[in-house]
Design goal:
The chain is an all-alpha fold. It folds into 2 domains: 68 residues, no CATH class; 105 residues, Orthogonal Bundle (Cytochrome Bc1 Complex, Chain D, domain 2), CATH 1.10.760. Helices cover 50% and strands 2% of the residues. It has 8 helices and 2 strands; from the N terminus they run H-H-H-H-H-H-E-H-H-E. It has a two-stranded antiparallel ribbon with strand order 1-2. The chain is rod-shaped, with a radius of gyration of 40 Å. It starts with a helix and ends in an 8-residue tail after the last strand. The mean pLDDT is 91. Bound molecules: heme C (HEC). The site of heme C (HEC) has 25 residues, from helix 6, helix 7 and helix 8.
Length: 218
């Protein structure tokens, strides 16, 4: 016997031991007595490959059961949950610390990206700001928003605050915070900052005091 045929016969023996298939032609040895309307049944043994798989799952289930229910120091779903929630909360806090301008009104800075300015411009029309401040922000019922004079304070924070809380009672500038989201109010305020120094067609006469703070930050 050469090496090849030795290997083949080893493989054959292995397959046979894993399947324990009954020899063809001798089925009547394991034929059961029952006859179900002409259908007969062979009493084959369970194939060992299947049986071993079954034993392995039993072994794993015992290991799993003991680990989950009696080794709760190491594998506790409750603890795992608590740890992950704590990690999540810490990540949220860290994000707040890293991005203060997104969460704390005291830290708002003017947005400068085109998309935000464009969004602010759209909102200025869609939220009817133009009705009182005009398309070019020159002012009519409301004051000119392009000049250096501000009634309620210039700079991103004051402007954001005015949009949120409104102007002086009875003047017509309502508090918009219930209607316009925080992000949109920042976009509106950033658009107004962006429009500083532009020349409206019919600017309304200056009202209020000249604002000298840093317009993008203060
Ligand atoms: C019904 C008219 C009206 C509408 C609509 C309106 N405003 Fe005004 N706005 C005013 C008036 C009037 C004032 C002045 C308030 C005061 O004197 O206290 C003002 C003031 C302001 C100021 C402060 C100006 C300053 O000199 O301090 C800002 C900023 C402003 N408006 C932005 C907006 C934005 C943004 C919108 C749209 C969401 C808007 N306004 C919609 C009438 C309006």
């Amino acid at each position: 016997m050469n090496k090849n045929s030795e290997q083949i016969s080893w493989w054959r023996r292995f397959l046979k031991s894993m399947t324990k298939a009954h020899e063809l032609g001798t089925e009547k040895d394991i034929m059961l007595d029952h006859d179900y309307d002409g259908i007969r049944e062979l009493d084959n043994v369970l194939p060992p490959w299947w049986l071993y798989g079954f034993y392995i799952t039993i072994a794993i289930s015992i290991f799993y059961y003991t680990q989950v229910f009696f080794n709760s120091e190491k594998y506790s779903q409750v603890k795992e949950y608590a740890t992950e929630v704590a990690e999540g909360k810490a990540a949220v806090e860290q994000y707040k610390l890293d991005n203060p301008e997104l969460f704390d009104d005291a830290n708002i800075v003017a947005l400068t990206e085109d998309t935000n300015i464009q969004k602010g411009k759209e909102l200025f029309t869609s939220k009817t700001c133009t009705a009182c401040h005009l398309d070019d922000l020159g002012g009519s019922i409301g004051p000119n928003l392009t000049d250096k004079e501000w009634i309620l304070g210039g700079g991103i924070k004051n402007i954001f605050n005015t949009i949120a809380k409104g102007g002086r009672p009875g003047k017509g500038m309502i508090a918009w915070e219930a209607i316009i989201s925080r992000e949109e109010r920042i976009q509106l305020a950033s658009y107004i900052i962006f429009m500083q120094g532009t020349q409206p067609a019919n600017p309304k006469a200056p009202e209020g005091d000249v604002w000298t703070g840093n317009k993008s930050k203060n």
